[in-house]
Automatic annotation (TrEMBL):
Keywords, ordered alphabetically: Oxidoreductase, Thiamine biosynthesis
Listed GO MF terms: flavin adenine dinucleotide binding; glycine oxidase activity
Domain of life: Bacteria
Top-level EC class: oxidoreductase
Protein name: Glycine oxidase ThiO
Species classification: Bacteria, Pseudomonadati, Pseudomonadota, Gammaproteobacteria, Moraxellales
All residue ranges annotated as the FAD dependent oxidoreductase domain in the record: 3-346
Pathway the protein contributes to: Cofactor biosynthesis; thiamine diphosphate biosynthesis
Length: 373
């Protein structure tokens, strides 16, 4: 089976991996360099930030993220030499209003954040001696991890590029789907070049509204900008991830600490601004005042593919044969990425699915209302 995938972020790359490993031949297209959009910009926390605030459908896919990525890392690392570092740091959460609900959630569901403990004073310092003394209470998720997402993408790209049945088409914006008699036959790029395939997957992230007119369905996915900044500290300086008021610090093994994040609707702009950067910095220094002594080495923004309730669209698109969706992962596309791709591969190949696919079905995309002049 020959499959074309539009979008080389985590959703498209993981789908390509799943399908190529099952013997499919895969062409993957991106309008820019592969793996440079939201999936690069994200933080890589392997759980929704406060799972109890999210729909069960989101947590259901997120809970497979860590184990699936671990398996893929074991397989890909010997070939690519790129370790994407699933870093078991645990996380401290300081939002008092979330303590009770967080403890109850962990008790009831265990996944994706697993065990949870309530900590005070000295116990917090034992876990992370850099926390400000102003934070006297926390809930602690000792088993929560983060993945180094830029390396995850590098590893996927490197592996797929050497795969005999995968072809990359970078800097190749796809303008149109070639649809005849309610069946998609392939793609047309902006330069007019056509590419044919048995099946087509839309993995176009925040850009997914592009397909609205052609498929005559409303696609309620739009970009929500998130800004980040990056500290460089000594190796393993910060022992845990930390979160307060939806602002977080994510330590990498080599001492980089990713700090974020903001939420702003400003179209497709990825410009950073001083005020937002200052807000992130203030929130992070409130938790870890000692960070002030270390340099900020990078600032950036990415575009989350927002969707209603953050529940992605995964599965067969309505009414058009051979067209599939894997988009709309909003704030959790990295932790849901491995599970989403596995589910889509199972659906495309007619295999038994590991979760019930109904809640993710693109059949819920509403038909466009006819506009009469
Ligand atoms: C600041 C920030 C922090 C985040 N933190 C986390 C986190 O800690 N954990 C987590 O799970 N998630 C996190 N996320 C969310 C996560 O990054 C996204 O949900 C996820 O990356 C979406 O992946 P994607 O592959 O669908 O989209 P993208 O990575 O954006 O990829 C889509 C690709 O499609 C291409 N494309 C679009 N249209 C076309 C076209 N017509 N032709 C060709 N190519 C096209 C684009 O160029 C792009 O490369 C964060 C996001 C941001 C911005």
């Amino acid at each position: 089976m020959h499959i074309a995938i539009i979008g080389a972020g985590i959703s498209g790359l993981m789908t390509a991996l799943e399908l190529a490993e099952q013997g499919c031949s895969v062409d993957i297209f991106d309008q820019q360099q592969a793996g440079q959009a939201a999936s690069w910009a994200g933080g890589g926390i392997l759980s929704p930030m406060y799972p109890w605030r999210y729909a069960p459908e989101v947590n259901q896919l997120a809970k497979y993220g860590k184990s699936l990525y671990q398996r893929w890392n074991e397989k890909l690392y010997p070939i690519t030499g790129i370790d994407f570092q699933i870093h078991d740091t645990g996380m401290l959460i300081f939002d008092k209003g979330d303590f009770q609900v967080g403890l109850e959630y962990a008790e009831k569901y265990h996944e994706p954040m697993q065990r949870c403990e309530y900590l005070t004073g000295d116990d917090i310092q034992q876990v992370n001696q850099h926390i400000s003394a102003d934070f006297e209470q926390a809930i602690y998720f000792p088993e929560l991890s983060n993945v180094r997402n830029p390396r995850l993408l590098q590893s996927l790209i490197s592996y797929l590029k050497q795969h005999p049945s995968v072809r990359f088409f970078e800097y190749c914006p796809i303008e149109k789907l070639i649809i005849k008699n309610k069946k998609v036959h392939g793609l047309q790029a902006e330069d007019g070049q056509q590419y044919f395939a048995d099946q087509v997957v839309l993995a176009s992230g925040a850009w997914s509204q592009h397909w609205v007119e052609q498929i005559q369905r409303n696609i309620p996915v739009h970009p929500v900008q998130g800004q980040m900044l990056l500290f460089k500290t000594p190796e393993n300086w910060l022992p845990t991830m930390c979160m307060n008021r939806v602002m977080y610090l994510i330590p990498r093994q080599d001492g980089h600490i990713v700090c974020g994040s903001s939420m702003s609707e400003c179209g497709f702009s990825t410009a950073v601004d001083q005020q937002t950067q200052q807000d992130i910095l203030t929130a992070c220094l409130e938790m870890i005042p000692e960070l002030e002594q270390f340099p900020i080495v990078k600032r950036w923004a990415g575009l989350r593919p927002s969707s209603p309730h953050g529940i992605p669209y995964i599965g067969a698109m309505p009414e058009i044969e051979n067209l599939w969706a894997n988009f709309g992962h909003f704030r959790n596309g990295l932790c849901m990425g491995a599970g989403s791709a596995q589910l889509l591969r199972q659906l495309i190949l007619g295999q038994e699915t590991f979760v019930n696919p109904t809640a993710y079905s693109p059949q819920r995309l509403q038909r466009l209302a006819l506009v009469t002049p």
